[in-house]
Amino acid sequence: MNQLTSAESSTSSHSAENKQKYNFNKLQKRLRRNVGKAIDDFKMIEDGDKVMVCLSGGKDSYTMLDILLFLRKIAPIHFDIVAVNLDQKQPGFPEHVLPEYLASLGIDYKIVEEDTYSIVKDKIPEGKTTCSLCSRLRRGILYRTAKELGATKIALGHHRDDMLETLFLNMFHGGKLKAMPPKLVSDNGEHIVIRPLAYCSEKDIQKYSDAASFPIIPCNLCGSQENLQRQNIKMMLQDWNKRFPGRIESMFRAIQNVAPSHLADKNLYDFAAIQTTGAPVADGDTAFDAPEFKDELAEENRSDVQIVNLAD
Ligand code: SF4
Hints:
By secondary structure, this protein is α/β, with parallel strands linked by helices. It has 10 helices and 6 strands. It has helices at 2-41, 59-74, 97-105, 116-123, 131-149, 160-174, 202-212, 228-243, 247-254, 294-309, and strands at residues 50-54, 80-87, 109-113, 153-155, 183-185, 192-194.
């Protein structure tokens, strides 16, 4: 009897393990597929590129590096990867963690040591937010490092949810319709910045990072509170997502599907030059008709399912 019980329990733990493995493989496939698609859609990486992958020690950048290393192996083009971490000398920063991890992968990497922490503490009065000076300093150091390393692309670990949060931050606090681009030239005009996780959800990344047991370095070592406005937007989006499943996906599709004629930016659309055409105009003004979303939403939901399942 005892034997039977133990056999049964071993079978059930086996099937739980198999299920876990199956789910992880599905998740991994989906993330790889989404990164590959973003790279392709925005021509992020080209033959001969040297990609500087910025590694903070958080879940996003570990996941990005892991997936880029895989894609490099199977890509039909040749590109190099060099991982870079900036040790900002925050108190308690576990400086052995990243070198040990990167050495275990056997890849090129560079740890840049710059005490921006002291500069920030020195310049910013107690109680004021330190993030804007800190990130300005970090940006400058990363640009300089990219130049020294001869990197042709700088890869950052921002994902889809970061992009949407930025969209709302800019709308709510900056009066701009502007998100975070998958690919853009750097503000000093000297580098091309790419975000290969642009199509990946934070939830997937979190699950992947947990399953892969990356050696995460806490991100609050500087003692600064995470930007409160961003935190509020994040909560708003999470709340919407719970109450209206599919809304996040729909909003992300919206930033890929912009109709300048239906906004009010006269620099983006030449309203002064509008003329009648005498023939039906696709997407012309429907005057008093209320917009209809039913079919579009259903269509969107179908497409979302497709996107999610692309990698399955
Ligand atoms: S949270 Fe800390 S390390 Fe991050 S940007 Fe702000 S000050 Fe810098």
